[in-house]
Design brief:
This protein is mainly β and about 230 residues long. About 5% of the residues lie in helices and about 35% in strands. It has two helices and 15 strands. Strands 3, 4, 5, 6, 7, 9, 10, 13 and 15 form a nine-stranded antiparallel sheet that branches. Strands 8, 11, 12 and 14 form a four-stranded antiparallel sheet that branches. It has a two-stranded antiparallel ribbon with strand order 1-2. A hairpin with a 2-residue loop joins strand 9 and strand 10. The radius of gyration is 16 Å and the shape is globular. The two termini are about 15 Å apart.
Length: about 230
């Protein structure tokens, strides 16, 4: 994948203000993102997961973020609205279902938080009034009980572990690390799929996620992959 110069996917798109946005040429994804390397990755020194499959943004115009109630967000971000087979891990470069055939990108974030606004900008996609989907695979060396996903997002988001809704962040919020902790969950020995979606009206958008053990410490002896 070339991160410096990419062909625009669309010339115009709906923004949060419900007007047509003339999109500038894509700026590229460096230095905030890098293509994934061969083999699994590791959490960073603070336990954050940086390797993700990220989908081109899907238009969902909203004039403000103030209407992101739990009912609205769960309606907009659900297995029913997922642009594909919810239980399947997509492949890098795969086209998802949708009017504009959004594409999946396997990327490593070079920061602890995944800069979704910059992803969209870098690819020449709309940046406001959109939904971003993210998927990663966590491989655990053993079964781990009573762990929690620690999540921050701008703006609202919903997260699933192995197909089960695990955490939701609602309202007009800024991204703060460990803003919301999921209910206690179990990491299976072997492969675990984390899937999330972030919705944003005006403003920037990003997220961060790490897995904490029962004592609240970041788990580092896991690996992260996108297959």
């Amino acid at each position: 994948m070339l991160l410096g110069a990419l062909t625009p996917v669309v010339a115009q798109a709906q923004t949060a203000g419900m007007v047509e946005e003339a999109l500038p040429p894509p700026t590229g994804l460096a230095p905030l993102f890098s293509p994934t390397t061969a083999g699994p990755g590791m959490p960073d020194s603070d336990g954050f997961l940086r390797r993700w499959l990220l989908l081109d943004p899907i238009a969902k115009p909203n004039r403000t973020n103030s209407g992101f109630t739990s009912s609205y967000v769960r309606e907009a971000l659900s297995p029913r609205t997922y642009p594909g087979e919810f239980g399947k891990v997509p492949r890098d470069g795969e086209l998802a279902k949708g009017e504009d055939a959004p594409r999946w990108h396997a990327l490593d974030s070079n920061l602890f938080d995944v800069k979704l606004f910059k992803l969209a900008q870098g690819l020449g996609n709309p940046t406001y009034g959109v939904i971003f989907w993210a998927v990663t695979v966590v491989n655990s060396p053993r079964e781990m009980r009573d762990v929690r996903l620690a999540i921050g997002s701008n703006s609202a988001s919903v997260w699933w572990l192995n197909g089960q809704e695990t955490a939701g962040l609602f309202g007009d919020r800024r991204m703060v690390m460990d803003d919301v902790l999921s209910r206690p969950v179990t990491l299976r020995k072997g492969r675990n799929v984390i899937r999330g979606a972030v919705i944003n009206g005006p403003g920037v958008s990003d997220f961060c996620l790490r897995v904490l053990d029962a004592s609240g410490r970041p788990i580092r002896d896991i690996t992260i992959d996108v297959t």
